[in-house]
Amino acid sequence: xxxxxxxxxxxxxxxxxxxxxxxxxxxxxxxxxxxxxxxxxxxxxxxxxxxxxxxxxxxxxxxxxxxxxxxxxxxxxxxxxxxxxxxxxxxxxxxxxxxxxxxxxxxxxxxxxxxxxxxxxxxxxxxxxxxxxxxxxxxxxxxxxxxxxxxxxxxxxxxxxxxxxxxxxxxxxxxxxxxxxxxxxxxxxxxxxxxxxxxxxxxxxxxxxxxxxxxxxxxxxxxxxxxxxxxxxxxxxxxx
Amino acid sequence: xxxxxxxxxxxxxxxxxxxxxxxxxxxxxxxxxxxxxxxxxxxxxxxxxxxxxxxxxxxxxxxxxxxxxxxxxxxxxxxxxxxxxxxxxxxxxxxxxxxxxxxxxxxxxxxxxxxxxxxxxxxxxxxxxxxxxxxxxxxxxxxxxxxxxxxxxxxxxxxxxxxxxxxxxxxxxxxxxxxxxxxxxxxxxxxxxxxxxxxxxxxxxxxxxxxxxxxxxxxxxxxxxxxxxxxxxxxxxxxxxxxxxxxxxxxxxxxxxxxxxxxxxxxxxxxxxxxxxxxxxxxxxxxxxxxxxxxxxxxxxxxxxxxxxxxxxxxxxxxxxxxxxxxxxxxxxxxxxxxxxxxxxxxxxxxxxxxxxxxxxxxxxxxxxxxxxxxxxxxxxxxxxxxxxxxxxxxxxxxxxxxxxxxxxxxxxxxxxxxxxxxxxxxxxxxxxxxxxxxxxxxxxxxxxxxxxxxxx
Lengths: 240, 457
Known about the structure:
The structure holds two protein chains of two kinds. Chain A is of the alpha/beta class. Chain A has two domains: 2-104, Rossmann fold, CATH 3.40.50; 117-239, Rossmann fold (3-Layer(aba) Sandwich). Chain A is 43% helix and 14% strand. In chain A, strand 3, helix 5 and strand 4 (94-96) form a beta-alpha-beta unit. By secondary structure, chain B is an alpha/beta fold. Among the domains of chain B are: 44-290, Rossmann fold (3-Layer(aba) Sandwich), CATH 3.40.50.10420; 404-456, no CATH class. Chain B is built from 23 helices and ten strands. In chain B, helix 2 runs antiparallel to helix 12 (251-262) and helix 16 (334-344) runs parallel beside helix 19 (372-385). Chain B starts with 8 loop residues before the first helix and ends with a helix. The model of chain B is unreliable at 423-427 (pLDDT under 50). At the A-B interface, helix 1, helix 2, helix 3, helix 4 and helix 7 of A face helix 1, helix 2, helix 15, helix 18 and helix 19 of B.
C-alpha cells in the first residue's frame, strides 16, 4: 500500500513537526509514504469565503498529483473534509490521519508513551463532517476515534471537558472578519481546557490549535497545544 | 431601487462583546436551554427517526405545496373560516386593517406571531390609530420597552430580570428594585387580564396548518393566545404558507419534536387546535408568501422552508450566543435567519451567511434536518457570484488562489513570509492585524516541512 501524504500550507510553514510526526508514524506502522511536492492547498480558504469558483487551479494540481495513490492521508481534518465534499475524484481515497489509522490500518496497539494530562479539542469538521466522534447534538451511541487511539498511549491521562465539543471560533477567515466573536469563542474554549487541568490540548486539526495557541501564548498560559500525530509518535525516547 | 444598507454583523457583535460579563451570561443562559433540549431528546429513543420522518413530511409538503394549500383553504372555508392570501407585508397588513375597520375595532390583542413582527404590523396599525397589545409575556416586555425581539421563541432573552423589573416599574408601576420573576409575572398577568376582557379582536400566529382538516395549531406555554382568541369576536391567524402538514396524525411527530427542541419541555402547555369559529365569532386566516415562493424556487435553499421555528439552532450556535440577537438586525436571527434573510434582501443581509464558523451544530440539532451550515456555505458562493464581495477581498482571494495553486509562487511567498516576520516583525505584529490584536502569531520554525523532507528523506 502506497500512501500519498498531503501537508497543507500552514502546517508546512508553521507546524512542520506535526507533518514529520505523521510521516514517521505511518512509516512505523509499515506504510510506504510518498510526498508529492506540488500541492499545498485544498482550496478551502477561498471556497469558505465564497470564492469557490477560484479553486480550479488548486483542485487540478491536487487531483493531478494524488490520483495515482491507493490512499491520500493528511493530518488536517478540515482540509480532508473539504476535499471529500468538493473534489470528486478523491472520494473514497482521501483520509484524515486518525480515521486512516482506525478505519483502514485498524490500529489496535501503539508503541507510544506520553506521560501527560491531555484534553481533546473536537474540531468541528472532524467531528460533524468526518464523524471522528459522536457529536453531542445527536441521540446516538457514543464513540471517539481519537480517544480510542490516545487510550493506547502509555502514561497518557485523558481529561474531560465541561463542554465536550463546542467550536473554538477559528472558522478560517472568520477569525479575522469576526474578530470579537472568534476571540471570545476561543477564550471560552481555552478556559474550559485550562480549568479542567489539562497540560496539553490535542486535536487532529492544527488550524483550531493555531487559534487557541495564539490565545494561550498571549495570556502566558502554561497549557500547550500539540497535534495528535506528535503524541501517537512519541515514545519513551521522545519523538520518533 | 437603491440597495439597502448592509448590516455589519461583525461591528454589532464587537459592540456586544465590549461587556464580556454580559456575553458570558447570555451564552450561559442559552447553553442551559441547549442542555435541556439534549436531556429531553435523550429520553426519546426514536429521536433521530422522528427527525427523519419530520424532515420527509416537510419535503413532501414543499414538493406539493400548491395542492396542500388548496386543500387547506377548501377545508378551512368549509369550517366557516375566511381565508385571505397576501403576497407581501403590505398586503398582509392591509388585509388585517380591513378586517378590523369593517368591525369598527381600534384595539387588538396579539400573541405568538413572528410573522406580524416581520411585516411590521404593530407600527402599521398604530399609524391607522389601532392599538395592539402583545400578550405573550416576553413579547409584552419588549413591547413596553420599545425594543425588538432578539430570539424567535424567547423574545426577551437578552434582558435580565433586574432590567425587566425596571421596565415594569416604569410602565406598570411595580415598586422600584422589584426583580422577583414570580411577582413580575403576576403583575403582567393582572395587567393583561384587563386587556383580554376588553379586546374584541385577537391575532395569533400559527405553528401548523393541517391540510386535511383546514384547522390550525397554536403552541404556547402561557395560554395567552387562547385567552385572547376565546374572548374575542374576531380571531385572525397570520400564517406563513410553508407552515402546512398534510394530516392531523402528523402532529404526533411534530409536537414531540417542537417543544423538546425549543425549550426542553416534553410538550408545550397548550397545543390548541382551532378549526371552527364559535357561534357569533369571525375567524380569519391570512396566508402570507413574503418571499417564500421565491425561496422555494431556489434548489439550494428551499429546504430552509421546512423550519418549524423552534430556535434550537440559535440556542446551540456558538456565534449567536456570543454576538446577541441584535447583531443580526433581522426578525429571525441566528443560523436559520442567516439562510432566510439573503432571500429577502441580499444587499442588506449579505454579511449574515459569513457570521458563522460553519461548525455544523445547527444542522444536527435541527428537528427537521435542514442542512443549515451547508446552506450558509452556498449563500456565500451566491453572494460573491452576484458581485457583492468587497474589491479588496476579491483581490486578496485571487492572489491567494494564484499562489496556492502554483508550487513556484508558493515557494517564493513562503520565503518572503519568513523574511518579513524575521526582519520586520512590526509589519506583522501590529494592532491593525485583527489576528494579532488579541492572539500571538504562530512562530514559523527555521525549516519548513518541504525543506526538511528534501534534506532528510
